[in-house]
Amino acid sequence: MSFITRSSAVFSTAIILLAATAGSAVAQKRTVLQSIDFPAGYGFAGIAVALMGRSHPLGIVLAALLFGALQQGGAELAFDIPTITREMVVVIQGLIILFSGALAHLPRPWLQSLLARRA
Fold first, then answer.
1. Confidence band of 1 (pLDDT split at 50, 70, 90)
2. What is the pLDDT of residues 2-44, one digit of tens each?
3. CA angle 105, 112, 99 (to 5 degrees)
């Protein structure tokens, strides 16, 4: 019995092909042409969104909205308050990833002990 559906296999193949296309430019030393307007940090944000969304489509949409608001809000906040730097926003994003990952399994032992008492 296979847990991989046809749609997930097609989606995974498309993502791999996209990554291979981006990697081929690096392998061919054509990054100078891309680095002019290519924004840095998309890889970090993409991995963080996928981790926070737990690979569920609705979770990924909600995590993407959260990270988009954090990045845009951080950029706007840097204009209003000069003492807040871009690195502070990245640290806050990292803390959100850390705590959301840590809290995923935190209630499990507590719930197991509660359910064991009832049984």
1. very low
2. 566 777 777 778 777 777 777 666 666 655 555 555 566 677 7
3. 15
- Residue 31 to residue 37: CA distance in whole angstroms: 11
Alpha-carbon span 63 to 55, nearest angstrom: 10
Q: What CA–CA distance (Å, rounded) separates 46 from 60?
A: 10
CA neighbours closer than 13 Å in the CB half-sphere of residue 22 = 9
Tokens at 39, concatenated? 């924004």
Residue found under tokens 């970090």? 44
CA distance 8 to 47: 18
Q: Where are the domains of the chain?
A: 1-38, 39-118
